[in-house]
Amino acid sequence: MRKEPDLQLGNEQLEIVDMTEVSDDKILLTDKNKRKLILLDTKTDAVLSEIVLKDKPLFICMVDTNQVATTLANRKIQFLNIQDTKLMIDSILDLDVYVMGIDKSLSNLVVAFEDKNIGVKIISKKDGAQIHNLDNTTAGRKVFKHPRWIATTSDDSIYVTDWGTHTIIRLDASLTFIQMFSGAMLNVPCGIIALNRDQLLVCSRDNNSIVLIRPSTNSMTVLLDKQHGIKSPKSLCFSTEQKLYVASTGKTTSVLVYKLT
């Protein structure tokens, strides 16, 4: 990958928890610090739209072409619509657990949660009703400690990063365990994205690296590290323009950008 100029976010420091691509030249960020969602034009660095929510937005995913869902720090999921370059509040789901990571799974949502128990749920995006559940009680062992970011792939696999156990857990669409990734390369795994069904990128926060995972061969390779400017990476997204965006832990005024070569 080739380093590109950083994506500048202005003078205000943001605490980016998660981000996702909206279209070829637009990405959406969650700013926990100011309780905002920010829609950015990646070609001009311009803020196209931003909206302040009632609670801190955490993790985010595209539900369909013009709708996004973000988990909030108060047992809720907020839906928003994107109309051209404008963010607009839509419906909200009240849940019975504190939800963390989120992604679309088939026609439903998959969420990581921490509460009296810890695990992953498949829920209806319509009313939040539980469809499948996997937690430390139903698994019969301590599988999860701090599950966070989630990525789904075209073969209906679900990947969950757990920074408490330094693992990435692969599940199917019914939350049946398939595979686990662990080892020295995954030191506090955070943000994860799927490039395709057999290539995933994950932030290894305390290793200051971005790791490429290939599930078919159970292999992991360091793609970017400190020599490429990576420091305490937290979240990332990949665009159809073959650009990788990486946000670091803590408050920042920029996002790192790399071009796939």
Task: Give an overview of the whole structure.
The protein has 261 residues and is mainly β. It has one domain: Neuraminidase, CATH 2.120.10.30. Helix content is 0%, strand content 60%. It has no helices and 24 strands. The strands form six sheets. A four-stranded antiparallel sheet has the order 1-24-23-22, with no helix packed on it. A four-stranded antiparallel sheet has the order 2-3-4-5, with no helix packed on it. Strand 20 and strand 21 form a beta hairpin. The protein is globular.
What is Rg?
A: 17 Å
Structural class: mainly beta
Terminal Cα span: 5 Å
What is the CATH topology descriptor? Answer: Neuraminidase
* CATH homolog superfamily: TolB, C-terminal domain
- Order of SSEs, N→C? EEEEEEEEEEEEEEEEEEEEEEEE
Strand order of the largest sheet: 1-24-23-22
Give me the count of strands.
24
Give the class-level CATH name.
Answer: Mainly Beta
Number of helices: 0
What is the global morphology? Answer: globular
The biggest sheet, with number of strands, parallel, antiparallel or mixed sense and barrel status, is: 4 strands, antiparallel
In terms of DSSP E residues, the strand content is over 45%
CATH architecture: 6 Propeller
Instruction: Please mark out the parts with pLDDT under 50 across 5 or more consecutive residues, or reply none.
Output: none
* Approximate helicity band: under 10%
Determine the mean pLDDT.
94
Name some characteristics of this structure.
261 residues; mainly beta; Neuraminidase; four-stranded antiparallel beta sheet; 0% helix; globular
